[in-house]
Write a structure and sequence with these properties.
By secondary structure, the protein is mainly β. 9% of the residues lie in helices and 42% in strands. The protein is built from 1 helix and 5 strands; from the N terminus they run H-E-E-E-E-E. Strand 2 and strand 3 form a beta hairpin. It is globular, with a radius of gyration of 16 Å.
Amino acid sequence: MSKVIEQLEREQLREDVPRFKAGDTVRVHFQVIEGQRRRIQVYEGIVIKRQGSGARETFTVRKNSFGVGVERTFPLHSPKIEKLEVTRIGDVNRAKLYYLRGRVGKKARVREKQQS
C-alpha cells in the first residue's frame, strides 16, 4: 500500500481500545442517529469473533434478546463508539465462537476466567 494511505489509516486508529478477545463479555456504547436526534445505545453481549487489522478491524457481539439470538458487527475504530468496556473475561480455546449460535439458555454460557 502507498505511504499516504497507511498514514491516513494510522491517524484514524483509536487509542482508548481495551484489550479483549473472543469469549469476553463487552458493553458497547454506540451512538445512534435518528433524524436530528443522537442517543447512546448500550449493547452488551459475548464477543464471538474479531477479524481484520488496522482501521478495518471489526468485532461481532452476540446476545440473547427475548429468547432470540442477535448478533451485531461493530468497526473497532469507529468514531460512533463512545465507550467500550469489558465486563467479564471468558475462558475459551477458540478464536471464533460460532458454536454458540446453535446453543440456547445455560448451554450458551462461556465460563469465566479465574483471577489469580
